[in-house]
Write a structure and sequence with these properties.
Helix content: 55-70%
Oligomer: single chain
CATH architecture: Up-down Bundle
CATH class: Mainly Alpha
Length: 208
């Protein structure tokens, strides 16, 4: 991976202040050391405390993915809230043993698709949130803007694959599960999306 893309993957969206999700319960919560499967089973049985542990554990990853996929941080934060609310009501339909993070990102992705189909207002807050959040470690504001603009030009499905596999460090298999796409399609999207990003940024591919 080129250094510029690697820097974006590490920094973009990771340094922003997180607004805690407005989901709280007063009941005792399970141990923070409980596994995702244990927490999901307890939450599916009605434990709000267990679900709050899951929100606490995965909200940052879900938000970061949605921010990269949407290019609109305010919208992404709203979609993250909707994602967890939807997940709370669907836990009994989740396949036991499957990656919870991938399942949550899949819900978020489908909500993002719906939102972006109904309102095409991409890139309108880019400059605002760069000025507010400041540069990520090692990434200049103008470089971040260029990367975000390049990402915004990718088709949504390809953008989601790149955001998961290059930025969120999902395996191709995890991304395929989250996005409900064939494994080969995910691999193709990642390869082509990465190539398009490098071409748009004028960076030589250091893998050729």
């Amino acid at each position: 991976m080129s250094q510029a893309v690697a820097s974006w993957a590490e920094g973009w969206g990771a340094q922003a202040p997180w607004r805690p999700l407005a989901m709280t319960w007063t009941e005792p919560r399970p141990s923070a050391l409980a596994s995702d499967e244990e927490l999901a089973a307890a939450a599916a049985a009605g434990s709000g405390g267990a679900f709050s542990r899951l929100v606490e554990r995965h909200q940052q990853a879900v938000r970061a993915f949605l921010r990269r996929a949407c290019g609109d941080w305010a919208l992404a934060d709203d979609l993250a809230q909707e994602t967890f609310l939807a997940a709370w009501s669907r836990l009994d339909r989740r396949t036991p043993g499957a990656s919870l993070r991938a399942w949550l990102c899949g819900i978020g992705y489908r909500k993002a698709l719906t939102a972006l189909r109904t309102e095409r207002r991409s890139r309108r807050r880019e400059q605002d949130y760069v000025e507010v959040s400041g540069p990520a470690d090692g990434v200049r504001p103008e470089a971040r803007l260029a990367l975000e603009a390049a990402m915004a030009d990718l088709p949504m499905e390809q953008r989601a694959c790149v955001a998961l596999c290059l930025a969120a460090e999902f395996s191709h298999a995890e991304a395929a599960q989250a996005l409900e796409l064939p494994l080969g399609t995910v691999k193709s999207h990642v390869t082509r999306g990465r190539a398009r990003l490098l071409e748009r940024l004028g960076i030589a591919d250091d893998h050729v």
